[in-house]
Amino acid sequence: MEAVVIKERLKSLDALRGFDMFWIIGGEGLFLTLKNFSHIPFIAFGIEQMDHVSWNGFHFMDLIFPLFLFLAGLAMPFSLKRQLEKGVPKKEVYLHIFKRTLILILFGILINGVQVLEFHKIRFASVLGQIGIAYMFGALIFLNFDYKKQIIWVVSILVGYWAMLRFIPVPGVGAGVLTMEGSLNGYIDRLFMPGHLYREIHDPEGWLVKIPATATALLGALTGAFIKEGKYNGYKKAGLLLITGTIFLILSRVLDPIFPINKNLWTSTFVLHTAGWSLLLFSLFYFVIDVLHFQKWAFPFVVIGMNSITIYLAVSYVHFSYTANALFGSIVKLIPVDFQPFSQVIFLLLVEWCFLYFLYRKKIFLRV
């Protein structure tokens, strides 16, 4: 991991990445602490959306992971291509990509918890590992094929993945069974994933989901390349992103009866659905922040987004809640009981954000 000083960049990308990470570091808890007010429709809806769908279907929290991967892909034209434009040899760019992937895999294992003397208890699959591997394959495709061939890659991945799960039979079960026990994903993970699986018989970050996750990263890369080119002005770019995102959402719903939207299997419809929402969100952030230049409101998210991996790792190892309670515990006791859990999350977020703001002011940005 290295400390770098970041120059001028696409602020909407950092802001949306920060918005995405906000829900991981405490935003989810803001709704969950309001269960006493679940009779209010908006709060009830928010609480429901803060929980992952058990299998088929989609809630807001199911977007957080793929949105982060989509944004990692979106950054490729601004990072990888910029290195090539500066004359960095392609081999060095490849080496950086492989190094990034390896570090993310290792960090993912560490976050899962390493039982050094009990190999069978280690969970090797992880969110960070999936981001690293999907980013690697997406980056290699992005660097070696033009945008038309990248689109062909995306379509081929989505159709090919559907065909795999639909027509390759699982011993003792048959083909096309999209359950946790009967899916091809679970079967492959039970055979070839070392250590233990997250759900014993299936792992949502297992081997096969890396294939459609690569398509998520590639769709982000295509979006970034579209934003970077100067063919259209900002208004048209935002509008076209909005239209494309809407088409993806409609298409995913149309295909849902054939191939259900499912995060655990990262189905092709899940790729389309989450890419649709990612495009809608990015078009909004891009239009407001980089086209209209209304930027001050997004500053808290930018601070989070510019150190997203840092805070993702930190919340696993740093006891922020202890600090928040030490600083604000006496204030929390003065707040009505029903609102105390909510206020605790607010103070927790404040402590986490101040930590990131300190890094921001010192111009320290950690990236792999």
Description:
With 368 residues, this protein is mostly helical. The protein has one domain (2-367). Helix content is 66%, strand content 2%. It is built from 15 helices and two strands. The protein has helices spanning 11-32, 41-49, 61-74, 76-85, 90-112, 127-144, 147-167, 184-192, 210-228, 234-255, 268-291, 299-305, 308-317, 320-332, 340-361; strands at residues 2-4, 365-367. The chain has a two-stranded antiparallel sheet with strand order 1-2. The radius of gyration is 21 Å and the shape is globular. The chain starts with a strand and ends with a strand. Residues 1-8 have low confidence and may be disordered.
In DSSP terms, counting alpha (H) and pi (I) runs of 4 or more, how many helices? 15
Largest sheet: 2 strands, antiparallel
Low-pLDDT segments, ≥5 res: 1-8
Number of strands: 2
Please estimate the helix content. 55-70%
Range of strand content = under 5%
| Alpha carbon gyration radius | 21 Å
Reading side by side through the largest sheet, how are the strands ordered? 1-2
Q: What's the number of structural domains?
A: 1
From the spread of the alpha carbons, the general shape counts as: globular
Distance between the termini: 5 Å
Instruction: Give the ordered list of helices and strands.
Output: EHHHHHHHHHHHHHHHE
Q: How confident overall, as mean pLDDT?
A: 92
